[in-house]
């Protein structure tokens, strides 16, 4: 098939795309050769800043289908009828590595979904783990710095990682998950996803319930042994991208069941009184025996992007994007992310990143935001301001209409870490693992832990001991096998 004629970005035909205009056959070159200048200028600017976290990712489009009625919990229209379908986009990612890192590194995996609803975009931006390392967003930059490169050596540093973790016992639950077999999933199709945070749903009567979202893979959980993950990192660093793209291209469309845990405010208060766990703490989970999973629907990925940069690299998701019938919670990590994610996209992609097709809502939209770089949908001649009525506001009766959230206590900085239980749920997770998975956990931890100071080792082992004595003993034995006496 013949290619169309080459033009400049302004549509002007290019006379010669192979030879620069020069003063004589050997040059020098002429500044008037605009095609040369534009071509090099654009090449220099091809890369937008990579994400600080979740830099390397894969994406695909699909469909969410409602299979069960949850309208008693929410007025969100995408759940209004069984069988109703909503277009979706999903971006999977590793968290700590750079854009060129290996897909099989030991790391949590991002699991970010966008639902293009008739009421706007709903972004469920989570991970493949139901918990996280920290409970307050003010610690997020510190934590991520420990997962990146040492500022002096420019190397990944087990010392930085375990120094932070050993001084932050709230991280133990997620550290246990990270160094288990689930820290190296076999591609993106064979892992579960979680909204992780506590969110809320609001029904037509204005009643609020709190929820946690679960995405259960229909392909079955598969993880890579540590040695195999390392081998693949060296032979096929794009393993997960290749697997996802290839499966969809072959018509083997992956699917996940969408499920919910639901609790009223009173139920959470009673649970907290019984367990001592803050239900809005991201380092904790809601046990299924206390809050059973409720089926909602199924989503399928069935279409690959045509342009990775335009549709995956420039995809800009944020947990602040919730539609009417949904809301947030007092989760401190969620509250920080509501600001940070949108702000990151403003910096990385631009002021008008929501104009890009992958980010634009597929329903009518109207606002009075104007101008800025790449202002594609700029409002035309419509009024670009909203006046304030002298008689007071007159709400249009649309939107979220959330019931008031009761507040307790004075505005201050509260640190309850010394009084909180960081060990029971980590121990519960450890005790759920079969013996071989426990041994894998010990070995996976002992590798990087053996490279740090005796002080950090002792501090971290103390946390394992409190989660379960067998946990600490197993890691000590694995360290001893590496010649480290702890």
From TrEMBL:
Matching InterPro entries: Catalase, Catalase_3, Catalase_AS, Catalase_clade1/3, Catalase_core, Catalase_haem_BS, Catalase_immune_responsive, Catalase_sf
Coiled coil: none
Domain Catalase core: 7-394
UniProt EC number: 1.11.1.6
Pfam families reported in the protein's UniProt record: Catalase, Catalase-rel
Example of a GO cellular component annotation carried by this entry: cytoplasm
Reaction catalyzed: 2 H2O2 = O2 + 2 H2O
Record CDD domains: catalase_clade_3 (cd08156)
Region entry Disordered, spans: 1-25
Biological processes annotated in GO: hydrogen peroxide catabolic process; response to hydrogen peroxide
GO molecular function: catalase activity; heme binding; metal ion binding
Binding-site positions, heme: 341
Keywords: Heme, Hydrogen peroxide, Iron, Metal-binding, Oxidoreductase, Peroxidase
Catalytic residues as annotated in Swiss-Prot or TrEMBL: 54, 127
Required co-factors: heme
Compositional bias annotation for Polar residues: 1-22
Enzyme class: oxidoreductase
Function text: Decomposes hydrogen peroxide into water and oxygen; serves to protect cells from the toxic effects of hydrogen peroxide.
Family according to the record: Belongs to the catalase family.
Quaternary assembly: Homodimer.
The protein, known as: Catalase
Natural source organism: Rugamonas rivuli
